[in-house]
Specification:
Blueprint lengths: L3 H15 L8 E4 L2 E6 L5 E2 L6 E2 L6 E4 L5 E3 L28 E4 L21 E4 L5 E2 L24
Antiparallel strand pairs: 1-2, 2-5, 3-4, 5-6, 7-8, 8-9
Length: 159
Amino acid sequence: MADVFPASQESQDRRLSRRGTLRQKKVHEVKGHEFVARVLKQPTFCSHCTNFIWGVGKQGYQCQACSFVVHKRCHESVAFPCRVVDKGPNTDDPRSKHKFKIHSYRRPTYCNHCGSLLYGLIRQGMKCDTCGTNVHLRCVEKVPSRCGDGPHREEGQST
């Protein structure tokens, strides 16, 4: 009986030592993006394929640096590097920069970068005059400088 008591005491000590610790999130790195699985609490659209992200539990991946939201199936096929992590050599080209202006939308519109709804009655977000990309004010700095490709679309990809 003396052998059984120390073993149960030891397992109880192990359980107590883990109490209150946080599990590390699994990070998937793709082209500089640091994707982490997320539970999306509001209606969200994939910023890569523009389809609705739905499901129970952790439905999609979100970049920790730039808040880019994608399906689990789309995170491997992201075509451009993370704007926040990697400042590429082509980011200073004036022809590829977006021309964002404050815009008031008449119907519900979603951000092409993070996939969340643009809230408010007037001046909900920014719209590029050239390619029509819609983004939050907070997402403007995180959007890659690839104007003319459409809202984050790879060449030849249908929407």
